Amino acid sequence: MTEGIGMIRKALSGFYYVDDGSGELVSCRARGKFRHKKITPLVGDRVKFTRLSDGSGALDEILPRKNQFQRPAVANIDQLVIIVSGAIPVTEPFLIDRVAAIADSKEHCDCLICINKCDLEPGDELYKIYTAAGFPTIRVSATTGEGIDTLRAAISEKVSAFTGNSGVGKSSILNALSPSFHLQVGEVSEKLGRGRHTTRHVELYRLETDAVVADTPGFSSFDTERMELLRKEELELAFREFRPYLGACQFVGCSHVKEKGCAILAALREGKIMPSRHASYIRLWEQVKDLREWELEKHRKG
C-alpha cells in the first residue's frame, strides 16, 4: 500500500475517482470515519488517499477547502460559470440570481454569466441585466461556435464549474470547447419549455488550455429552493451592485425592501439597480428573514 495526494475528478455511486497526476484515475471509497463525522467528499477536493494492493484506493483525509457548494456539489472552484439561455428553455433571472448570490458570498470564487444559443435568441435582456450588475457576461453558440474562443480564454488556467437550468447547453458547450469529450446532449421539449437531465453526476474535465471544468447536472426551479440559504445579514453583500450604497441608508439595519430613506431603493428608482435583481433580492429576503440559526443549519445539511 502506498499513500498519495490528488484531486477528486468524479463522484459516482459512492466511488470517488482521484487524479494523482499519474495519468489514470484511482477509484476510491471513503473510509468509515467520513460517514461517522457526516463529511461528504466533493468533486474538486484535494485529498490524501491510500492506494491498495488491488489498485483501488481509500480516501484518508480531505485537505482544507477554499470554498464549497451544495448545488452544484463541488469544492475549490475559481469561478462559477452560469450557463443561461434566452431561447427555449428561457432562463428565469431569479434562477441566475439565486446561484450568483451564493457564488458572490464565497471567498475566492468569481462568477461568469454565459448566454448560450445566441444564434436563436441574442438574450439582449439578460445581457443588459447582468452587465449592468457588474458581471462579466459572454454570448456564445455551441452550435455555430460564436463566442466559444472568448469563453475558452475566460476559463483558461482556472478551475470552473458549469451550472445552469436543464437544457441550456452545458454539455454542448463543453463539446464545442473540446470535441474529443463526446458528452451526451439532451433534447429540449418545446411543449414543456425545459430540457432533460443528461448529466447525472459531477465530473471535472481538463481542457488543452490548462482549464479544468466541472460539468454538473442541470437544475430546475424546484432545485433552487433546496440550495443553501444565506443569512439575512449576508444577503445584501451577495448582490454586488448594492455594495456602493451600503451604509448610506437613513436607518441602521435597513432591509432594503420598502424602508424610507433606503439608499438601495433610491438607486433602484434612479435606474442604477435593475428591477429584476432587486425583485430577486426581496424574494430571497422573504425566505430567510424569519429563520433562526438552527433552521439555517438544518437547511444546509439537507
Structure description:
By secondary structure, the protein is an alpha/beta fold. The chain starts with a strand and ends with a helix. The protein is globular, with a radius of gyration of 20 Å. The protein is built from ten helices and 13 strands. Strands 8-7-6-9-13-12 form a six-stranded mixed sheet, sandwiched between helices. The chain has helices spanning 32-36, 93-105, 124-132, 148-155, 170-177, 221-225, 232-235, 263-269, 275-288, 293-300; strands at 2-12, 15-19, 25-30, 46-51, 57-62, 79-85, 110-116, 137-139, 159-163, 188-189, 194-195, 203-206, 212-215. A hairpin with a 2-residue loop joins strand 1 and strand 2 (15-19).
Give a brief description.
This protein is α/β, with parallel strands linked by helices and 302 residues long.
